[in-house]
Amino acid sequence: MTPAELALRRYAVQGLVNEAGRMALDYFGKQDSLGVTMKGAQDWLTVADGAVEDFLRQRLAVLFPSDAVIGEEGGGQASDAVWIIDPIDGTANFARGDRNWCISIGFLLNRVPTIGIVAAPALNEFYVAQRGEGVTLNGRPISVSGADDLKRAYVELGWSTRVPFEHYLAVLQRGQAAGCSMKRSGSGTLGLCHVANGRTDAYAELHINAWDVAAGIVIAGEAGASINDFFAGEGISKGNPILCSTPALAAQLREITGIS
Fold first, then answer.
1. Which secondary-structure segment (H or E) carries 92?
2. Would the CATH topology of 3-141 be identical to that of 150-257?
3. Non-local CB neighbours of 100 within 8 Å, separated by 6+ positions
4. Which of 168, 150, 167 is nearest to 251 (CA)?
5. Alpha carbons 24 and 20: distance in angstroms, whole number
6. What's the pTM value of the predicted model, to 2 decimals?
7. Which residue, among 173, 181, 205, has the nearest Cα to 191 in the 3D structure?
8. What backbone phi and psi angles, to 5 degrees, belong to 50?
9. What is the CATH number of domain 150-257?
10. Burial, 36: exposed, middle or buried (Cβ in 10 Å; 0-12, 13-18, 19+)?
């Protein structure tokens, strides 16, 4: 794929995600009509999830018909050029009126995360990144915090029902014992974005799905973060652990989390 073809995808999908953000924000403002259901324990679903994903799928099919699409709600199969969509990441927050949610779309070329676009419309934030081309938040370049001391580090630890709670608790305990300040905010995508913009120093989760990180990996990587090889093995189809941090904290956090 030529640089021009990649640039076309980045610019075109920025417009789509902006439009999808307005759609999602309209749903967010009408809490009584969200049609909230549960796919499983703490696995929330609203009508906005389906509507946003359907919109993005339809537009991508027109603009880039040869590209594959994988979505959280509609599934799909990977190819050499694939878009991976999370229509609402942080759905539990979204359904409860918490503004910490986003729309995430990442593009993988030959299994390499290449374009990442994230809109958090309730926070008025828009992230755009392309591999080798840098990253911006609302049009301005961002970078990781540069933190190098665990005793001053602010670390977010995501939680998943797919991993025994004891494993999560053990990581939390080791992190706090090492002096980290630990948090959880309910959106893996924004967790990676917040490492990218320096609000936190690391994000880790013992299992997370591809749609939660496909865009954020590009965003955080272009901001200077150290990130494990999430898409190794069956990462696209079955997910993997994720560890994203400032470079100076990476080795210590690999020991704390067990994520390599």
1. helix 91-96
2. no
3. 90, 93, 120, 122, 123, 185, 186, 187, 190
4. 150
5. 6
6. 0.93
7. 205
8. -65, -40
9. 3.40.190.80
10. middle
Residue type, 180: C
User: Which residues, at least 6 apart from 181, have a Cβ–Cβ distance to it below 8 Å?
Assistant: 153, 154, 155
Question: Under a CB-based contact definition with an 8 Å cutoff, are residues 204 and 197 in contact?
Answer: no
C-alpha–C-alpha distance, residues 117 and 189, integer Å: 10
- Give residue 35's pLDDT: 52
What size, in residues, is the chain?
Answer: 260
18-40 pLDDT per residue, tens: 999 999 998 887 766 555 443 44
pLDDT at 45: 52
Specify the pLDDT at position 44: 44
Contacts of 228 (CB under 8 A, 6+ apart): 240, 241, 242, 243, 244, 254, 259, 260
Domain 3-141: assigned CATH number: 3.30.540.10
Instruction: Kindly state the tokens that stand for 13.
Output: 């999908």
For the chain, the domains span: 3-141, 150-257
Structure tokens, 115: 């374009």
d(CA 144, CA 62): 36
